[in-house]
Design a protein that fits this description.
Layout (H helix, E strand, L loop, with lengths): L1 H41 L3 H5 L8 H15 L1 H5 L2 E2 L8 E2 L7 H15 L6 H28 L1 H13 L1 H4 L10 H21 L2 H17 L3 H17 L5 H18 L8 H4 L4 H22 L2 H31 L8 H7 L3 H5 L1 H4 L9 H7 L3 H12 L5 H19 L4 H30 L3 H28 L1 H6 L2 H25 L3 H29 L7 E5 L2 E5 L1 H12 L5 E3 L5 H8 L2 E2 L8 H12 L2 H10 L4 E5 L10 H15 L9 E2 L2 E2 L7 H5 L1 H7 L3 H4 L3 E2 L4 E2 L10 E6 L5 E6 L7 H10 L1 H10 L9
Parallel strand pairs: 5-6, 5-7
Antiparallel strand pairs: 1-2, 3-4, 7-13, 8-9, 10-11, 12-13
Length: 786
Amino acid sequence: MAAPEISTAAVPTLYTNNALRNAFGGVLAFFILLLIGVMAFSIRLFSVIKYESVIHEFDPYFNYRVTQFLAKNGIYEFWNWFDDRTWYPLGRVIGGTVYPGLTLTAGTIWWFLNSLNIPLSVETVCVFTAPIFSAFASWATYLLTKEVKGTGAGLTAAALLAMVPSYISRSVAGSYDNEAVAIFALIFTFYLYIKTLNTGSLFYATLNSIAYFYMVCSWGGYTFIINLIPMHVLLCIVTGRFSSRLYIAYAPLVVLGTLLAALVPVVGFNAVMTSEHFASFLVFIILHVVAFVYYIKGTLTPKMFKVAVTLVVSVGLAVCCAVIAVLIALVASSPTKGWSGRSLSLLDPTYASKYIPIIASVSEHQPPTWPSYFMDINVLAFLVPAGIIACFSPLSDASSFVVLYIAASVYFSGVMVRLMLVFAPAACITSGIALSQAFDVFTQSIKFQLPGISSNKEVDAAETSSATAEAQNDAVKTEKSEETSKNRPSKKSKKKEKEEKPSTKAKAEKKRLLALPLDSSVISLLLLILLGAFYVVHCVWAAAEAYSAPSIVLTSRSHDGLHVFDDFREAYAWLRHNTDVDDKVASWWDYGYQTTAMANRTVIVDNNTWNNTHIATVGTAMSSPEKAAWEIFHSLDVKYVLVVFGGLVGYPSDDINKFLWMVRIGGGVFPHIKEPDYLRDGQYRIDSQATPTMLNCLMYKLCYYRFVETDGKGFDRVRQTEIGKKYFKLTHFEEVFTTHHWMVRIYKLKPPKNRIRGKTKKSKSKTSSTSSRAKISGTGKKNPWH
């Protein structure tokens, strides 16, 4: 009878200790998350500190321009905006061709701050949107990982994501692109799916559909969600893990999520008509068939159940075959089988290079190299396998989703380097699980190996907890039957004591046997801390040096100090101040967004790349001789041509290095442009061994015109060779502006009358009497096409 008395006295103390411990742990976790959010925001400010508050890259300038329009004119004008400054003479309907999530988010933030009399400019809000949402993404990662493996793993994963270089590369201050908010939406949608799966709550299922809708508004990568979740549902069904919670987690997402997705103008009926979405509908049908089978199993007798299953399976197979036949018919009617070009390039990595060179020409659509994995996720590459193993002990619905997520994202990141961004959260989640469990193992081992105090406390705590549970049960039984307990007080209590005490001691002994040696645990713990420190140093370096420089302002260091190359803004400023508002500017599509946003001039093509024929026309002009190129540009009402040249300063991303893609894209539409004509023995050359077609094309002439005057030799620092054709004149174009470092060169098309001056002289000698009479009368006119 002594044991129950001691345990009953210890109950309030134990409850108080647990409550205090939980409260302290919750407060500590909150402050750690707050610090993680501050760290995620501040580590992305190197670009502002080192350079200035400026928009980066190419696509963000279009998003910035659209946000400016939204803030100035309102949302209704935004939905109906027809932009006549892009894709001349076609134009573009902006409201129906953009993912509006980023623009509406930044516009809402700007409106809210200004309503509080905080007068921030639209540009400032756009610059800092990505760092703000990186903090949100870290918190969403904590919530997701906590649902899978607990608070410790969640905090570790959040800290890893806040610093991972792959995510920093697309979320530094100034990187105002769709991924700035889409990665948060992706992780938060996955969290709500797992939360619904764990709780079976219809409330979280509804929130999950709304989060999916925000993801659809933000980025075309939403198809990753609508394919990964059905794969997980199918995996749960195949492995016998079907439950009502699984049904609640998936069915509302497909129905409500698809209806909401169809409200986004750029998606519309694609939400039900394209092959990317068919897997979700097929799994939706399978889920209902399985749910119906489980339902009738609980209501029918075994014999009737067999008959019903046979009937259901027969009807189900017939319906599935009919649905599959309809889908096959729809898919077969499309030349791309219902898939978009980017999706096909993911399923078949060689597809884009064979059939769609415009997709293959984009650098971020290329497969990554092995060093890029170590650059973008660093030590996480070694921790991911350990995290996958940890997800199997024990395997749950949530942990199986993480395993499936990491497997799918690894494949897609290996196909397209841009999708390293999708792989990064999965790598952080699995690495956070691995690190958390490793710390638990090593710290528990050290605790068991410490001299007597801790081990005795463990045994005493175990005995006290078991005695507490026993005391509560005995107290209830004593209140119900006081007389019975007096008659038989010792037998049951003694049996329970004999059974429980050996079991608690056995558990403590088992933990002690599983503990690692003290020196191994300490060394392993120090190595993990060292690994974490190395990861932090690498991430800070990547944020400060590798990913902080805006592409529009370049820097380089040499023996005489730091050099800043601001040629892009110099060129756009010249266009803005020295050309007419209605002038059209032709360039390769990479610079279309910047030209429209910064120079406020009409462009022929831009980074939207929706019309391959129009881009091929510009590529054909750049690949053609000067006269043919002039005729093409003149037919498009072009007045200025802009080219980017890095041969003087060693800038490798110039138009000469991109020129073969212009040839391939142009040749894909206009067969007279053939790539072998620009290659010498299969090699791309610009020196004296270059082909005549290469030396006489417009791109070569516009880049290397007067280049020999810079050093007397015409040495190209990017190609590391002297150019082949050094001295030549332009007959149909005239140079009007070249930036300080020769990185951007602008040419003006000569008017038609200037290019036929020699022919008019010959015509004068043949018709001297007619021309003299015309001069006297003043009514004669020259024929410019003679």
